[in-house]
TrEMBL record:
<feature type="domain" description="Glycoside hydrolase family 65 C-terminal">
    <location>
        <begin position="701"/>
        <end position="761"/>
    </location>
</feature>
<protein>
    <submittedName>
        <fullName>Maltose phosphorylase</fullName>
    </submittedName>
</protein>
<feature type="domain" description="Glycoside hydrolase family 65 N-terminal">
    <location>
        <begin position="13"/>
        <end position="270"/>
    </location>
</feature>
<dbReference type="InterPro" id="IPR005195">
    <property type="entry name" value="Glyco_hydro_65_M"/>
</dbReference>
<dbReference type="InterPro" id="IPR008928">
    <property type="entry name" value="6-hairpin_glycosidase_sf"/>
</dbReference>
<dbReference type="InterPro" id="IPR017045">
    <property type="entry name" value="Malt_Pase/Glycosyl_Hdrlase"/>
</dbReference>
<dbReference type="Pfam" id="PF03633">
    <property type="entry name" value="Glyco_hydro_65C"/>
</dbReference>
<dbReference type="InterPro" id="IPR012341">
    <property type="entry name" value="6hp_glycosidase-like_sf"/>
</dbReference>
<dbReference type="GO" id="GO:0004553">
    <property type="term" value="F:hydrolase activity, hydrolyzing O-glycosyl compounds"/>
</dbReference>
<dbReference type="Pfam" id="PF03632">
    <property type="entry name" value="Glyco_hydro_65m"/>
</dbReference>
<feature type="binding site">
    <location>
        <begin position="603"/>
        <end position="604"/>
    </location>
    <ligand>
        <name>substrate</name>
    </ligand>
</feature>
<dbReference type="InterPro" id="IPR005196">
    <property type="entry name" value="Glyco_hydro_65_N"/>
</dbReference>
<dbReference type="InterPro" id="IPR037018">
    <property type="entry name" value="GH65_N"/>
</dbReference>
<dbReference type="InterPro" id="IPR005194">
    <property type="entry name" value="Glyco_hydro_65_C"/>
</dbReference>
<comment type="similarity">
    <text>Belongs to the glycosyl hydrolase 65 family.</text>
</comment>
<dbReference type="GO" id="GO:0016757">
    <property type="term" value="F:glycosyltransferase activity"/>
</dbReference>
<dbReference type="InterPro" id="IPR011013">
    <property type="entry name" value="Gal_mutarotase_sf_dom"/>
</dbReference>
């Protein structure tokens, strides 16, 4: 654990430079606006530890797969959101020597990500090897309003010298991905232009043999310079190199002078514009934003963030670190995905690093959708569902490659364009529970929003295709006289190729049941016949098969302990608890894979993932027994794990456990808990942190169209409040030790149940807390 970030309710602050942790800080201080994003790199050259990262949403490259032993069915490539043109770069030379903080003596240093405003800033006083004292101040943002642009204000002040300062703002496409499988570069140049204080660079992703779309991205910049606050009359000398353009400005300065450079940049991609129009559109875009000017761009951006916080904020009274942690999570989720574009999704690292390739996992459906549903309006979650709807044909194709037929769909484990990108057989072919998460998200969305129309419009086609997959994936066991599911990997990836993973079997049966009920509903709608014809649905035969599986599925169970078994044979393992192996943790770094697989230790919620999703199907005793059996064997080595345990613990009244698990998720990255923040942030699990508060501590659910709350306060907090949108109304909910206060500022009432008592909330409603909830 590292604790060098200063606690602050609204900011992530590094006081004094920590060069050894620089890649961690760069991850923490990443900026984004849904369309583009970047790590918290310095603008000027830095030769110390750094991972340069600029990303354009949806722009990826199919990097040739690298595996030891090829298995039929593996995809040929791994899609990666690639490191794109560096648009923040500004080289600074003082009397011909490049300024590089790595070689300077640093007198003072301060870097801050202001989450309230979405602004990254830094100031620093440094002494160059030549003895010049300089002060650098920088500020930048990725505009939430003009979301294909960003702007930088960068100042250099001569503190003890007279001389020449050269400022060279540039666009650099000679970047690489650190995670390239064969150390190749992914971009080639299409064109470049420079004119006074302007540069335009168009790059294209290199050709590939897989028929995957090549993207063109045009990055444009314009700049302006002030000296001591007044506009400078300057010459900009164009520089053009391979995949690089710059404008070089040489200025004379005297001690005490300050130069301030304003750099505006845009990133336009062929995913959104015609290729032949990219350059012109980039210039128009630059015209528009430079006309607004830095201050107006910034204030519009700040207003957009203020509006987001109005709908998203969680306030925690009495625990500054928890406050910083939760806002950090909300901030990054909101800047990673804004929900305006149904072709985009949420990569596990967002715009903060390369790991996991920026591609889509089941994390979106299982973790992120509940967050966006409650904080961002219905269309945002709906667009995430439509993303999968649009990939349905590919999911059917993907299942076909594995031998399934007749419209059965297996959604990929990881994807950019709907095609599978993952290549570890035990996950790619076997971690099929992801299909269930996609079906569950449809249910979750409809349950939350009441938008049943979605079923007929899009949902049912997906559900039928997924149900067809389960039908073909199970087989009849003559010995058990039950349907079984062999050779699967559950969410707990520390078990592979197991038979009858309880979670997967349960989810499959639930999908079949839900699809049957969806068919019933859609049958009453006009569109039903058209959908059935489109998917060639043999209603009688197919629904009969599904019902048979529902009736006769096998679920491993231990009658002695009265718990569900994670898989067949689980009790043959030597059952130990995590506290017996504390010096061996994390086991994924200290043990061989073979040892992990044979052990009972669990990477992340598995049976408990099922109990979390379907808690209303089970009584408290069942939930408790399973929790008490599995949680002590769980090492939580996936960031997706603690939040599920925290929520379950909250609903079981295990307050201490709930808080312990919450703390592990909330500051996972801020404190570099897993020693991997330098690779990027755990964006998707951040949604789990939010859920630990709202679904966990506040016990929020939606039952029969009513918002349900069963709130309590974790011990170290005095009070907390959160905003939640439900059926078009944003409410503020405050929980103190005495009462729950719900504010609905609109003119329409909303039904809310608090600890079993139902209110029609209009204006303010106060529910006094009693008993355990008030403790
Ligand atoms: C987890 C998966 C998850 C992936 C991306 C893995 O470590 O086991 O469940 O989908 O990370 O977050």
């Amino acid at each position: 654990m590292k604790q060098y970030i200063t606690p602050n309710p609204w900011s992530v602050i590094e006081e004094g430079f920590h060069p050894e942790e620089n890649e961690i800080t760069e991850s923490l201080m990443s900026l984004g606006n849904g369309r583009m994003g970047q790590r918290g790199n310095f603008e000027e050259k830095y030769s110390g530890k750094t991972l340069l990262g600029n990303y354009v949403a949806g722009v990826y490259f199919p990097d040739k797969t690298r595996v030891g032993w090829w298995k039929n069915g593996y995809p040929d490539y791994f899609a990666k959101v690639i490191n794109a043109c560096n648009w923040i770069g500004i080289d600074v030379e003082i009397d011909g020597q490049i300024l590089d903080l790595h070689t300077c003596q640093i007198e003072e240093f301060y870097r801050e990500l202001d989450m309230k405003r979405g602004v990254l800033s830094r100031h620093c006083t440094a002494i160059t090897p030549q003895g010049q004292r300089v002060r650098i101040e920088s500020e930048r943002f990725c505009s939430m309003v003009d979301d294909e642009s960003g702007a930088i204000k960068y100042s250099v002040k001569a503190l003890n010298f007279d001389g020449h300062i050269t400022l060279t703002p540039y666009l650099d496409g000679t970047i690489r991905n650190r995670d390239a499988n064969y150390d190749e570069t992914f971009w080639q140049e299409i064109s470049k232009e420079t004119s006074f204080a302007e540069g335009i660079l168009t790059l294209e992703t290199k050709p590939n043999p897989y028929g995957v779309e090549q993207f063109e991205v045009t990055t444009g910049m314009r700049f302006d310079i002030k000296k001591n606050g007044k506009k400078l009359d300057f010459q900009s000398h164009p520089v053009k190199n391979e995949k690089y353009v710059a404008g070089k400005v040489v200025t004379e300065i005297s001690e005490g002078d300050e130069l301030t450079l304003f750099k505006y940049a845009v990133n336009l991609s062929s995913a959104n514009y015609k290729r032949e129009e990219l350059t012109e559109k980039a210039k128009n875009y630059l015209d528009r934003i430079t006309k607004k000017g830095y201050s107006s761009l910034l204030s519009e951006h700040e207003l957009a963030w203020a509006d987001k916080w109005e709908r998203n904020d969680i306030e925690i009274v009495g625990d500054m670190e928890a406050q910083q942690g939760i806002r950090f999570n909300i901030f990054h989720l909101q800047q990673t995905y804004t929900g305006e574009d149904e072709s985009l999704n949420i990569g596990p690292k967002g715009f903060t690093g390369e790991k996991y390739g920026g591609v889509t996992y089941w994390d979106t459906e299982a973790y992120c959708i509940p967050f966006y549903l409650a904080t961002s309006g219905k269309h945002v979650a709906r667009n995430l569902l439509i993303y999968r709807y649009k990939h349905l044909a590919k999911a059917i194709e993907n299942a076909g490659k594995l031998g399934f037929s007749q419209g059965a769909a297996l959604y990929p484990m990881v994807t950019m364009n709907g095609e599978e990108s993952h290549n570890e057989w035990e996950i790619t072919f076997e971690e099929i529970h992801r299909n269930g998460a996609i079906a569950f998200a449809i249910y979750d969305y409809i349950n939350y929003t009441g938008d049943k129309v979605y079923l007929a419009e899009y949902g049912l086609e997906v559900l039928i295709a997924i149900s067809r997959f389960w039908k073909q994936r199970v087989n009849w066991s003559a010995q058990k006289e039950k349907f079984v599911m062999l050779g699967v990997t559950g969410p707990n990836e520390y078990e592979n190729n197991v038979n009858n993973n309880w979670y997967t079997n349960y989810l499959a049966v639930w999908c079949l049941k839900y699809t049957l009920s969806a068919i019933e509903y859609v049958r009453s709608q006009e569109k039903a016949d058209a959908i059935f014809a489109k998917v060639e649905f043999d209603q009688e035969a197919e629904t009969k098969d599904w019902q048979e599986i529902i009736d006769k599925m096998y679920f491993p169970y231990d009658p002695e302990r009265e718990v569900f078994l994670q898989q067949d044979g689980f009790l043959d393992k030597e059952l130990k608890t995590v506290d017996q192996i504390s010096e061996h943790r994390p086991i994924n770094q200290k043990w061989s894979w073979d040892r992990i697989l044979r052990s009972c230790f669990i990477k992340q919620a598995d049976v408990l993932q099922g109990l979390y999703l379907f808690e209303d199907h089970f009584d408290q005793g069942t939930l408790r027994r399973n929790f008490d059996f599995y949680e002590p064997m769980t090492v939580h080595e996936s960031s997706l794990s603690p939040c599920v345990h925290s929520i379950l613990a909250s609903s079981l009244g295990k307050k201490e456990k709930a808080y312990e698990m919450y703390v592990r998720t909330a500051r996972l990255d801020l404190d570099d808990y897993n020693n991997d923040t330098e690779d990027g942030l755990h964006i998707t699990s951040m949604a789990g942190t939010w859920m630990s508060v709202v679904k966990g501590f506040a016990g929020q659910r939606v039952r029969d169209g009513v918002l349900v709350l069963n709130p309590y306060i974790p011990e170290g907090w005095d009070a907390y409040s959160f905003r939640i949108g439900f059926r078009g109304i944003t409410m503020r909910i405050e929980v103190t030790r005495q009462a729950v206060i719900i504010e609905n500022p609109t003119t329409e009432s909303v039904e809310v149940q608090v600890w079993g008592k139902q209110y029609s909330v209009l204006g303010e409603v106060r529910h006094e807390l009693k008993g355990a909830a008030a403790e």
